[in-house]
């Protein structure tokens, strides 16, 4: 995935990695490591919490997991959003709104470890670790050792 | 849009914020949750565009039966930074002047469709009474001598920001304890977080009985100052003093005012706090108010973020419906 990011952007000039709370953060850090190994460049890495931008505020408990930390001004930068699992796309929609409040990025790309389908919005990833067909009521958990797929317990 | 059901946040059922005790059976956890959420809103406040769409379409009305600038502005700023609409109600220009009852006023406001009512009232218990009538969330912005919970939350946040955990800290609250809702809320919050509180005042400015209050009492500010981590000064509330409780303001200043020479007795790290508005030259010397350890402006700045957290907890963090899990 790191190679793809370099290839797509013809290098890493102006690239910023932004991990989504919470699952995207360790992935963004690992991507930054990989990019540093390949290109020898330290890519600025930050994180964004989308709680205040969600479209389901008031419908379910929504609380931020951590404080947003954007490394500098995003004007004119290429932002790679990083998340663990892409599902309905609603979190990404909220993240796009959140990013715009921090400046006008030249472009925003999306890197996800798992794309499990069931999109509810016109959002598609630019870089995918693995496409994982799932049922709607299944739960996907990404951790250091790999990916767990389980039934959602109601 | 009016709310249905009660808000259930992680620490339990927070529907209104009328007193510090409302923050749950475990007050310390409740305060901790507000602090954590406040961290996020402090980040929002530091942005070039300090606004998030979290409470779009919600309406917050500020209902102030008593004069206030900072609390009112602070709540309004907080609501606007959350993208809520703000309605303003001030008694002087309202039909309360024409003899409308409190209940009718509340019912009228609610009929317009509001989600939260921020109340300040000269009578203790007025917000609780309003909460019984209202279906929207009620936030106490100060009721008589009773409580001022958001002030206590912002004070806890300010102390934590500068000194870290409050547990084991020694905090002196100095001045007119008897008439102070700030003191009552702060004593509840500080002690819940494990701090030790000493109230320092002349006997006439203490409540008739301090039984059951988890505080120590002192009448000697000079003896207490070297031992404290925070010196919290209260405003001399001349408007609430119907009787001659102190011989003169000058005498009060000479015994209980934080003068420059007294401020030197404080430990290096000790904070000087004041809920405002200050009477410079009475409870706090003009130069002391500008001391590097005086965090009075920080208190005001954090006040907006804390109130954003409170509004978001009450209006935005979920309903009893629970919703479906969404990744």
Task: Describe the protein in words.
The complex is a heterodimer of chains A (154) and B (327). In chain A, helix 3 (90-100) links the parallel strand 3 (78-86) and strand 4. Chain A has a single domain (2-151), classed as Rossmann fold (3-Layer(aba) Sandwich). Chain A is an alpha/beta fold. Chain A is globular and about 40 Å long. The longest helix of chain A is centred in the first third of the chain and has 16 residues, at 24-39. Chain A has a five-stranded parallel sheet with strand order 2-1-3-4-5. A two-stranded antiparallel sheet of chain A has the order 6-7. Chain A has helices spanning 2-8, 24-39, 90-100; strands spanning 15-20, 45-48, 78-86, 107-115, 127-131, 138-143, 146-151. In chain B, helix 2 (70-81) packs across helix 11, helix 5 crosses helix 6 and helix 5 packs across helix 11. Chain B folds into two domains: 8-148 and 302-315, Aspartate/ornithine carbamoyltransferase (Rossmann fold, 3-Layer(aba) Sandwich); 149-299, Rossmann fold. The longest helix of chain B has 20 residues, at 296-315. Chain B has helices spanning 27-45, 70-81, 102-111, 126-133, 149-163, 181-192, 221-224, 249-256, 260-263, 286-289, 296-315, and strands spanning 8-9, 12-13, 59-64, 85-90, 116-121, 137-143, 170-174, 196-200, 215-218, 230-233, 271-273. With 327 residues, chain B is of the alpha/beta class. Residues 1-12 and 319-327 of chain B have low confidence and may be disordered. The A-B interface holds A 49, 51-53, 56-64, 66-69, 85, 87-88, 90-91, 97, 101-102, 139-140, 152 and B 3, 8-10, 37, 39-40, 42-44, 47, 49, 51-55, 82, 312, 315-319, 321-327.
